[in-house]
Amino acid sequence: MILGLLKTDYTAYIGNEHIVYNELESKAKEGAILCPVCDGFVYMHGTYKRKIIISEFDVKTIIIIQVRCKQCRKVHAVLPEFIAPKKQYDFNLIKNAVENKEFETCSAEDSTIRRWKLSFK
């Protein structure tokens, strides 16, 4: 995974994935995106759909962009900053639940929130 490259929130990202894809493609061609494993150059590889829970009543399907390293051939997902790796909930929702700001309004199970708290300590 490549994290921190797409500094945007979900409202700006959803519906504009093709623009983001084109911007990433031009950055990859310039050599501005490097493989996190071997620092090799990457090229655009494709996309896949992923669901993200924004709030209790708001689930969005977004497009995740993938790149592949020319050197080690590994495929990496380029995650927008509002997505926590390997989590289905919006990063801000997780952060607020961990900080007890929205513990009562978060739709996640109590055991999930406790696990988040342990992993973010």
Report on the architecture of this protein.
The chain folds into two domains: 82 residues, no CATH class; 31 residues, no CATH class. 30% of the residues lie in helices and 31% in strands. With 121 residues, the protein is α+β, with helices and mostly antiparallel strands. The longest helix has 14 residues. The protein is globular. The model has no long low-confidence stretch (mean pLDDT 84). The protein is built from four helices and four strands.
Task: Tell me the Rg in angstroms.
Answer: 16 Å
Share in helix: 25-40%
Could you report the average pLDDT, rounded to the nearest whole number? 84
Which strand order do you get reading across the main beta sheet? 1-4-3-2
Q: What is the multimeric organization of the chains shown?
A: single chain
Which of globular, elongated, flat, extended, rod-shaped describes the shape? globular
Order of helices and strands: EHHEEEHH
Low-confidence regions: none
> Would you tell me the structural class of the helices and strands?
alpha+beta
Question: Number of helix segments?
Answer: 4
Kindly estimate the percentage of residues that lie in beta strands according to DSSP. 25-35%
Q: Ends: how far apart? A: 21 Å
Which sheet architecture does the biggest sheet show?
A: 4 strands, mixed
Indicate how many domains the architecture comprises. Answer: 2
| Strand tally | 4
